[in-house]
Predict the 3D structure of the following.
Amino acid sequence: MQVQSLTIRMNLKDGSSEEIPIAGNLQWILPPDESVDLALVPLAPNGNLFDYHPISESSLATEDVIKKESISEGLKLVFSGFFYQVPGLKQMQPILREGIVAMMPDEELQTTTGKNGKIYLGEVHAFHGNSGSPVLVDVGGMRGSVFRVGEDYRLLGVVSGGYGEGEQNNLVLETPLASKPGNSGIAIIVPASALKALLDDPRTVALRDSEVARQMQTSKK
């Protein structure tokens, strides 16, 4: 799709927000696996001005972490997303919702791209504005033979879509953008392992290294 221009709105640390105009389309990096409903945009906002929280690689619930932490059905989920009905006058206002891990299937299921792939299901009510929301799972408490006091969250994945209730209560796969009344409350989550694979993609690494080098060069001037 040819995009002439777009605007990105970001919150500032002074309590306001700023709309950043961009001429033309952004550079999207898509995964080679067509079943993965993810897209990456390389951006490096000024951390001294913009109010955002980075998520470290160590917080990703990759396959190894899932096995180590015994992450399974029934654990608490929390996700933060955009509540488009209340966008906020001074700043964007995120909405926080919670639920539980509903299913971590051993086999591939149909994703929102129409292909079969690896997904998790969460009993969390996702709707228009929540697509791409980070989903965190609490691994605190008793995990195997280890008891961890308090809450300890890992990034399980990102919201991709969900199942709506169609005619005769049949569940219909749909994206939050196209969701209709009758949301079943079951959301589709793209695993963090797929996100890490996209972050480690040679295209992404090259852009990241280039930006780091540019910032280092700028700081020396």
Q: What stands out?
A: The chain has one domain: 53-220. The mean pLDDT is 87. DSSP finds three helices and 13 strands in the chain. The helical segments are 63-68, 192-199, 202-220.
